Amino acid sequence: MSNTARQHAFKPYPVWPGFALIIVLAGVELKDTADEETVNLLTHVKATLPPSDAYVILTILIFIYYLMCVYRFHSVLRQQTDGDYPVKPPEAAFYHLVPLFNFYWVFAWPSRFAGYVNAERAIKVVPGVVCGLALILSALTSKYFDTAVGLAGLFLVTAYLTNRLRHYVGYRELDRAAAALENPV
């Protein structure tokens, strides 16, 4: 990779905007719950209000940002490996949207990343199945318990994998620098 190409090297998106949006979502959830309790107290009827527009919009924005992070994650890997990494960025993000296949996919792409990185002995990554289980548990928590908590779990896994990716990129750059010193052009 030339010096100008190295200046334009992709970096993974930061995960903190996802966490910031999740904190806002938790506030919206608390407000929606308080509104529901107020209605129940005033009407003396156990009512369940539909989620607010802010809740729906924030949930969609958070998921879109997650997909953007996954897309960029795989873009960085493809760029760093000069296209050798087997997962293409568009398919990495799109397969999260395919019903039923997405259950397989949340195990597949972390496993491929872990297998690829561990095979190069660059850094150690926990097995992809562990990350996949954490992603599935996060999705189930989001669906059946609390959306903000489940999405936080999703971004915790993303933060871990992004950290491993940053270390991997650093390792690859050191490897390239060492090769350039051994074979000056």
Task: Give the topology.
Layout: H1 3-7, H2 16-43, H3 53-80, H4 89-94, H5 101-120, H6 128-144, H7 147-182
Low-confidence stretches: 1-6
Distance between the termini: 13 Å
Q: What does the main sheet amount to? A: none
Strand content: under 5%
Protein described:
The chain has helices at residues 3-7, 16-43, 53-80, 89-94, 101-120, 128-144, 147-182. It is mainly alpha-helical and 185 residues long. It has one domain (13-182). The protein is elongated, with a radius of gyration of 20 Å. Residues 1-6 have low confidence and may be disordered.
Short description:
With 185 residues, the chain is mainly α. Helix content is 76%, strand content 0%.
Any key phrases for this structure?
mainly alpha, 76% helix, disordered N terminus, 185 residues
